[in-house]
Write a structure and sequence with these properties.
alpha+beta; globular
Length: 541
């Protein structure tokens, strides 16, 4: 699976957005008061390219939501799946063959027709090992993916003659294609709302690099002027070619990228913007700063973990990992974070199949038991315990030190801290060069217990760089995937969670919610199924 909303390697606030619905927006030059203009500022560095097939971060996919449309989506009001670009998504009896029919007459924003071939060709490109595109793993269940992406010994390069097409993809006609999976997967239709499966136009497929900053989308908006220059606001206007449903109210959308969430917050208080995320540093003051103008997400956005390096011999014992878990006071840590609830499970609250406390005694705060268990397991022989934290987060070091203090006091061990950027920590983890624990978060891409478990627990999952692999867990996930009865499938997925908890490869810490401030001129969408959306704000004046 993919990791589209991965808050990798560090504890950070959920993506903060700033929006202005004013015709006099500081970022816009359109003085027509009748034009509904929405300026969204993301508290993150600007992306260096726009390509949802090669991007699984919150920032890039937030932009992609405006430029591209998914095959299906979750209805924010009901939680049910609805067609968007798709006219129908039909599985066979055992969910191994899926026939996808798109609506006729659709176009890319340059006027070129949108066809089934665009999906097949784009999915093939993304799956090619040589490209190294981020969302390749999304297509791993389609037949032929394993041959295109063979498992190789450490340090060995892939051969140059690997297949370039998925054997399980087939164009039926201009608007219909078929995906044959290597294993039954009853959730496949639900996954198609992920924008990592968006199509790329024929022009872009010929030379993707040439279109990194001038994407040809097929969604609600298009880049104003056709080309975006990194370092400037990303200005989008409604695409005249989009004929799909669920269009937001804004006529024009401007994305601002403000790396410092506190700057965005202060801009809101100064009246310069109309929508902003509340950074963790302002959790104690936002209600007084903006009374009556804040909204809290109905369900958690991220479930956060302490992630041990399973390749390191000091962390290979489940008892060591359980000792670390028992030394953490989740209630104290959650209060420090702010809008957080202690987490003792791998499934997010609000998802069908959630059960509180699946971690059992291993997640109970028990300093004496933790110290005893660590001693029985042999302790740490490689020196002080290291905690990696992100230097591009205002609070990451604070939270890391809070956990470190608990380890020092409750386990009587030495702790040191290593500060690096999130991308540096991710790269080190991918190369198995992190020699300490780190903190990361996961938020599901579609509301399913499967998407809370598979990405972090499956042997070859994308958010499993530690290499955790329990074949019995994999077998249960596969059994759940093959079960067409959703309630029976949930029960099987729960068995997989219970079994993995005995290993505790990742240590659950807490679940966070996002809080946003908004002006009186807009009302952001707030759904327990899809979260808070600035793009789909309602204009109240």
């Amino acid at each position: 699976m993919h990791k589209s909303r991965l808050a990798a390697a560090s504890i950070i606030a959920a993506t903060a957005l700033v929006a202005s619905a004013c015709g006099s927006s500081t970022s816009g030059s359109n003085s027509d008061a009748s034009v509904k203009k929405l300026t969204i500022a993301d508290a993150a560095e600007a992306p260096t390219y726009i390509n949802p097939l090669n991007d699984n971060g919150a920032t890039g996919l937030g932009v992609a939501q405006a430029l591209f449309a998914p095959l299906v989506r979750t209805n924010p009001a009901t939680g049910k799946v609805q067609n968007v670009i798709a006219q129908s998504v039909t599985p066979n009896s055992d969910s191994t063959v899926w026939t996808i029919k798109i609506k006729p007459g659709l176009q890319f924003d340059d006027g070129e027709p949108l066809t089934a071939q665009d999906y097949v060709a784009s999915w093939n490109m993304t799956s090619q090992e040589a490209r190294g595109w981020t969302n390749s793993g999304f297509f791993a269940k389609i037949k032929g993916w394993d041959k295109m992406n063979p498992l190789l010994p450490e340090g060995k390069k892939a051969p140059s003659n690997l297949p370039k097409k998925l054997s399980g993809l087939k164009v039926i006609d201009k608007t219909t294609f078929q995906a044959t999976l290597s294993v039954p997967f009853s959730q496949f239709g639900l996954t198609l709302q992920y924008l990592g499966a968006a199509p790329m136009s024929a022009k872009e497929r010929k030379d993707p690099d040439a279109y990194k900053l001038k994407p040809i989308g097929m969604g609600l908006y298009k880049v104003k002027g056709g080309v975006w220059k990194v370092g400037t606001d990303l200005d989008l206007v409604k695409s005249p070619t989009y004929k799909g449903p669920f269009a937001p109210q804004a006529d024009e959308v401007v994305f601002k990228f403000i790396p410092n969430a506190e700057t965005a917050y202060n801009d809101f208080l100064a009246g310069d913007v109309d929508f902003t995320g509340v950074p963790s540093t302002k959790m104690g003051s936002y209600q007084q700063d903006a009374p009556g103008q804040y909204v809290t997400s109905q369900t958690g956005d991220f479930l956060w973990y302490l992630i041990p390096p399973l390749w390191d011999k000091d962390y290979q014992s489940a008892d060591v990992r359980k000792a670390l878990s028992m030394a953490i006071n989740r209630t104290t840590l959650s209060k420090l974070v702010g809008t957080a609830t202690p987490a003792t499970e791998y499934v997010q609250r609000g998802v069908d199949g959630f059960r509180e406390g699946t971690c059992g005694t291993a997640c109970n705060y028990d300093p004496a038991g933790a110290k005893s268990l660590l001693q029985q397991a042999g302790g740490f022989k490689g020196g002080p315990l290291k905690i990696y934290y992100s230097t591009d987060s205002a609070t990451s070091q604070t939270y890391a030190q809070a956990i470190g203090n608990m380890f020092r006091q409750n386990l009587d061990i030495k702790v040191t801290y290593v500060g690096k950027t999130s991308s540096e920590i991710n790269d080190l983890a991918s190369d198995h060069k992190v020699d300490g624990v780190r903190i990361g978060g996961w938020g599901f891409d579609y509301p399913s217990i499967e998407d809370d478990l598979t990405p972090i627990l499956a042997c070859q999952a994308d958010y499993n760089p530690e290499g955790y692999c329990n074949k019995k867990v994999d077998a249960l996930l596969a059994e759940g995937n093959s079960q067409s009865d959703s309630q029976k499938a949930i029960g099987i997925y729960q068995q997989a969670e219970d079994l993995a908890m005995k290993d505790l490869p990742n240590i659950p810490l807490y679940e966070t919610k996002s809080i946003y401030l908004y002006s009186k001129r807009i009302k952001p969408l707030n759904s327990k199924y899809t979260g808070i959306s600035a793009l789909y704000s309602t204009f109240t004046s």
